[in-house]
Amino acid sequence: MAEAAPAAAGGGIGDILATAERDFLVRNSGEQVKISSIEASPVAIYFSASWCPPCRRFTPKLIEVYKELASQGKSFEVVFASADQNEEAFNEYFAKMPWLAVPFSDTEGRAALDGRFKVSGIPHLVILDAKTGEVYTEDGVEFVSEYGVEAYPFTPDRINELKEQEKAEKENQTIQSVLGTPTRDYLISNKGDKVPISELEGKYVGLCFVVDGYGPVIEFTNLLAKIYEKLKEVGEKFEVVAVSLDSEESAFNESFAKMPWLAIPQGDQKCEKLVRYFELRSLPTLVLIGPDGKTLNSNVADIIDEHGFEAWEGFPFSAEKLEILAEKAKAKAASQTLESLLISGELDFVIGKDGAKVPVSELVGKTVLLYFSAKWCGPCRAFLPTLVKEYNNIKAKNSDFEIVFISSDRDQSSFDDFFSQMPWLAVPLEDERKASLKKTFKIRGIPSLVAIGPTGQTVSRDAKAQLMIHGADAFPFTEERLEELQKKLDEMAKGWPHKLKHELHDEHELVLLRRGTYGCDGCEEMGSTWSYRCDECDFDLHPKCALGEEKKGEEEEGKSTDEAPAGHVCEGGVCRKA
To answer: Where is this region: Disordered (predicted)?
Structure first.
């Protein structure tokens, strides 16, 4: 670690940034600046690196705040402490920054700053008093991101003041305070017209947070547009305002052109403020504001997503209206048939391997598994061999059984390649029924298996777990069948030893315990009902693994170069929307 330099006159920033060998910082032009000459206060130390995506997203925001404060004549300086891996990367990244930096060559000096402020992740922004060295905050990234120049001078008192202001704003909220600014009292249409915010007073207003190119948002806004037009048609006083999270105006314009409602101008700081104001956690989000300007619901997107177009009948989503929607959904589920799920207009078929159309009528009366999956999904690829094996085992004994593949693949070639490995049927890739099926069964992650019984009623929404635990014996996936299997296991358990030692866990004895669903640490597959367990080490073995009835395979399934598309994350054996 570098040795600290003697305290500069007045102490403060000199003690923190200088070393015995160096009393200067540098600009991206190469100019050296004496640390003792820095008069600005506060000073922010910016720990960042070009290889870090969150840093690259935050740096433009910090530059914007830095320049805005400079234009207002406010005293503020930033010092870049790089975590880049080489000087070329440092120079390229620093070239975009209008402030100072610790020389990249001073490895020990940069490391000393990391240690002093216990930097465990980047971007990290420490803001302090230049004269005294008092740290105002180590949450500078959060404050700059959320409040921008309003947070200046970034002291705890100022942040508390802003939070109190927000609290007061919420208590006295109006549609004007939510959507307007001191310099803007209008919204815009996609034709460029300015619409006074006052025209929305007395109406229900939905604030729709949007970002171009994000699949879930595109799907939601397409659905919302249909509901919006329907509510207009029946005379409801309802308006939607898009709140853009796009950084590029061209991206915003492209998506906004397809929307029939209004928007806050792209790039308006109000958009960022509303993200914080409504504590945005996920997309899509639709905040509902009542006619009095107060927030009725912080996110009705889930309600609309669950009920689809019929959600319009629940507007404005009061408890009474939601109860009506729930009753309708219940009645719809009770009248469900395989035909109602898989037939839409002239789309009354699924396809086989050669693309041949198989009428849905040929599946009626069978137990049908709807298999939601995709080639890009690693857990799906890993699960497929097991599903093929159990499918063949079930079909060998039961002709009244079938699987239908519902793909989330991005292109026809991926669909064709993945489907070629399956001995069952599929809904075509570009088929409108896929969206309806995903919505009906609230598919949040893949792979997923939904079991439809011979009457067309849903018998299991998690047939995958049953199949992984019981194999082909899980057929026909009903509650009654599961109860039979559990009784059978209970009888078998009477003959198993209560305790045993196992080579996979020789630290402690394993005890036979009744369990819910768990993951076996031997074969890494799911288990249920009974486990040989060590509570101290959180270790479980299937009875069949513990008793040596089966050995874990060596082969790893599911390896591929395919990656999850944007907006998805794969972990824990499932791929979900991020």
So the answer is: 550-578
- Six-digit token pair at 54? 């969150």
Mean pLDDT across 136-158: 91
Please identify, among 129, 162, 195, the residue that sits at the C-terminal boundary of a domain.
Answer: 162
552 within domain boundaries: no
The answer to whether position 167 is within a domain reads: no
What's the full length of the chain, in residues?
Answer: 578
Q: Is the pTM of this model over 0.70?
A: no
Examine the domain organization and report whether 317 and 185 are in the same domain: yes
Q: End-to-end CA distance of the chain, in Å?
A: 40
Whether 196 and 291 share a structural domain: yes
Residues 30-47 have a mean pLDDT of: 93
Q: Which residues contact 160 (CB under 8 A, 6 or more apart)?
A: none
- Average pLDDT over the chain, rounded to whole? 89
Q: What percent of the chain has pLDDT over 70?
A: 93
Angle, alpha carbons 214-218-223 (nearest 5°) = 155
Q: Assess contact for 31 and 1: CB atoms under 8 A.
A: no
- Please check the confidence at residue 525 and state whether its pLDDT lies above 90: no
437 and 357 within one domain: yes
Identify the domain boundary among 457, 481, 505.
Answer: 481
Dihedrals phi, psi of 100, to nearest 5 degrees? -95, 170
- Residue 209 per-residue DSSP state: E
C-alpha torsion 378→383→388→390, nearest 10: 180
**pLDDT of amino acid 574:** 55
**pLDDT tens per residue across span 363-402:** 999 999 999 999 999 889 989 999 999 999 999 999 999 9
pLDDT at 558: 43
The position carrying tokens 């598994």 is: 369
d(CA 71, CA 60): 16
Nearest to 198 by CA among 239, 253, 244, 256: 239
199 and 317 together in one domain:
yes
Please give the residue range of the domain that contains residue 533: 496-547
- Same domain as 463, residue 356: yes
HSE (side-chain half, CA atoms, 13 Å) at 255 = 26
**Domain annotation covers residue 292:** yes
Determine the pLDDT at residue 273: 86
**One domain, residues 380 and 474:** yes
Taking each continuous run of H as one helix and of E as one strand, the counts in the chain are: 19, 28
| Whether residue 80 is found in the same domain as residue 65 | yes
Residue 569 confidence (pLDDT): 52
Rg of the chain taking only CA atoms, in angstroms: 30
- In a shared domain, residues 240 and 105: no
DSSP category for residue 488: H
The answer on pLDDT for 571 being more than 60 is no
Q: Which residues contact 171 (CB under 8 A, 6 or more apart)?
A: none
In a domain, 71, yes or no: yes
For residue 496, what are the CA distances in angstroms to 158, 488, 492, 493, 544?
67, 13, 7, 5, 10
| Overall domain count for the chain | 4
- CA–CA dist 528, 20 (Å, integer): 64
What tokens does 75 get? 């005293």
Q: Which residue has the tokens 């070329």?
A: 88
